[in-house]
Write a structure and sequence with these properties.
There is one protein chain. By secondary structure, the chain is α/β, with parallel strands linked by helices. Helix content is 29%, strand content 24%. Strands 1, 2, 3, 4, 5, 6, 7 and 8 form an eight-stranded mixed β-sheet that branches. The radius of gyration is 16 Å and the shape is globular. The two termini are 31 Å apart.
C-alpha cells in the first residue's frame, strides 16, 4: 500500500512496483485506462501550467504535451523511471516531492490533476495535501479515485483490494475536499471493463 503520512513514506521496491507489471494489470484487467473523462474535465489549454500530483510513472505526461507539465511523486524510483523513459524537456519536468509539502512556489500552476491520489491519503494527510494544492494553483483541481458504491459488489471488492488504504464513498471525498475547495462538477465513470467505478471531481480553491 502506498503511504503518504503527511510525509508519505517511500514505497519499498517490489515486483508490483514494476512499471511493466503495473501497466500489464491495467491493460489486462481494466482493459486499458479510461482517461477521456479525466482529460475532458481538466480541459488543458495550450501553454497552461499543469501539475500532475502523485504522477507515479508519469503516464499522463504525454496527454499534456501542449502544456508546461510538472509531475510530482514521493517515490524517487518512479520519478527516476519517468525521467529515463518518458523524458524531460524545457516544458516537461518530474520531481520527487511530498504532495503535502512540495517546496514549489505559490500560484505556480493553472490547473492540477490528482489521478488516483486521494484514496492513498488518510484524512489528515488529505487535508494537508489540499492545503498545499490550494497554495499552488490558480484554477481548477481535478481528482479521480475509486469509489465505494451501493449495490456495486464487484466494484466494492476491487476498492477493498486496492493498494490505496483510504478508498471512500462519494460523500467521503466531497466532505474532505469541500473543507478547502468549492465543488464545480462531479461525475461517476467506469473503467473499460465496466466493473471498476471511479469518482471524478473538479474543484476551485475557496
Amino acid at each position: 500500500m502506498l503511504e503518504y503520512g503527511c510525509h508519505r513514506g517511500q514505497m519499498k521496491e517490489s515486483a508490483r512496483d514494476s512499471f511493466f507489471i503495473y501497466e500489464g494489470i491495467r491493460r489486462i484487467f481494466l482493459l486499458g485506462l479510461n482517461l477521456k473523462p479525466i482529460l475532458d474535465l481538466v480541459d488543458a489549454k495550450p501553454n497552461e501550467r499543469i501539475l500532475d500530483a502523485g504522477c507515479g510513472f508519469g503516464h499522463l505526461a504525454a496527454y499534456f504535451s501542449h502544456c508546461d507539465y510538472t509531475g510530482i511523486d514521493n517515490d524517487p524510483t518512479r520519478i527516476k523511471w519517468a525521467k529515463k523513459n518518458i523524458g524531460e524537456s524545457p516544458r516537461r519536468h518530474f520531481l520527487a516531492a511530498d504532495v503535502c509539502q512540495t517546496g514549489l512556489k505559490a500560484d505556480q500552476f493553472d490547473k492540477v490533476v490528482g489521478y488516483g491520489l486521494l484514496h492513498h491519503l488518510p484524512d489528515t494527510a488529505a487535508q494537508n495535501c489540499l492545503k498545499e494544492l490550494t497554495r499552488l494553483v490558480r484554477g481548477r483541481v481535478v481528482f479521480s479515485d475509486p469509489v465505494y458504491s451501493k449495490w456495486h459488489l464487484i466494484n466494492n471488492l476491487l476498492c477493498k483490494l486496492d493498494r490505496g488504504g483510504y478508498v471512500r464513498d462519494a460523500e467521503g471525498y466531497l466532505r474532505i475536499c469541500g473543507s478547502q475547495m468549492t465543488l464545480q462538477k462531479k461525475i461517476f465513470f467506469y473503467a473499460h471493463n465496466r466493473l471498476a467505478r471511479y469518482f471524478l471531481t473538479a474543484f476551485i480553491p475557496k
